[in-house]
Structures are given as C-alpha cells and as structure tokens.
Amino acid sequence: EVQLVQSGAEVKKPGESLKISCKGSGYTFTSYWIAWVRQMPGKGLEWMGTIYGGDSDIKYSPSFHGHVAFSVDKSTSTAYLQFTGLKASDTAIYYCARPSNYDGRHAFDIWGQGTQVTVSS
Amino acid sequence: SYVLTQPPAVSVAPGQTARISCGGDHIGLKSVHWYQQRPGQAPVLVVYDDGDRPSGIPERFSGSNSGNTATLTIGRVEAGDEADYYCHVWDRTSEHVLGSGTKVTVL
Fold first, then answer.
1. How do residues B4-41 score in pLDDT, each as one tens digit?
2. Which of A44, A97, A112 sits opposite B101 (nearest CB)?
C-alpha cells in the first residue's frame, strides 16, 4: 500500500525550532516529489513548496520561503519540514502529499494524515 | 500570481446534484484536480485531470473544465458528501495553486 505517515503532534513555544517528518512507503520514494501543505485553524489549504525525493531539488512558495526548510533522507524514504523561530501564527496542521507524476506538477494522489503544530507561550 | 476562486458554501438536499465552481483565468487550458476534506480528516483526491476519478471514488463525482470555470459535480448527494472541497491547478508562474475551498452542506 502506498502511504505517507507523518510524525505526531507537537507543542512548542515561540522562538523554538521544530522538524516534522513524512515517511513514504509502498513506492519508490526517490522517483517522486513531496509537497508540504499548511492548513491554519478553520482555514483552507496552502501549498508551501515541494522537494524531490531523488536529489533534493526544492521549490518554495514565495509565501514560505525563508521561514521553513525542506530536506529528505533517501536512506529512510523520509521528508522533513523544519521551522526556525516558531511564531504563534505557525499554529496549523501540516500535511505532506505526493504529486502523482515524476515532474511534481500533477494532482496530489497520496496524503499524509497531518501533523498538528501548536505554538504557544 | 494565479488565483482560483471558489464559492464559500453550497447547500444541497439529499439525492440532488451539487455543483461547485472554480474560477481562474483561462483555467480551461490547465488540468484541474479536486479534493474532498471531511471534518478532522486529511484531504482525498476525488477528481484529477478535469474529470478522471481515482480508483475507489464513486461515479457520482465528475468534473468539467472550459473557458474560465471548472466545475465539480456531485450527483445523488449523500450525507457523507458533506465536506470541504478544494480545486487545484499547476501554473507555470505560481506552481501549485489551491482554491479557497467550498463547504458543501447536505440539508
């Protein structure tokens, strides 16, 4: 079964750092991109960017560039989303999703279950 | 940047047809995908490439795309179809673009 499994919920204080994970299985991780999508409380889905599982090529949405960082570990088929200097406005559910074709420009056919991040003093 | 516009809400009686629009400049020239997100759950792809369905998605879900509007149609609506629906395209300048979402309420 093709799936993406994300790390568990996190509660952090403002200014702290955080790295959440998304582990792919059931497919060749290095042949596909992984997208990260934010959903703030009660709001819609926002594309944050995508990273290629094979060579770490990255495309950031301008709205998120500079505040988050993507990485992958090919040996464990895991993608990471890292925050530095968390703010209360980073409180959201973060999803990873797989664009369904090799160039990363297609529908997101597989989604992780989401990671709730809460930033509060 | 490319923008997708969806109505905030659509209401429909059980057994009737729900139509959800997604407006964008010359969207008919792009491939449109649709996601269903039930409360407390991750999104699920229900239509891709304007009108194709992934395996396991009922035939009641269909899509069309022309001009400046794409439409997701849900036939014979059931209580379980109550969810938020998002359209999605890939744009050469903006990369992945998601619509603002439409809440479908089954009366």
1. 999 999 999 999 999 999 999 999 999 999 999 999 99
2. A44
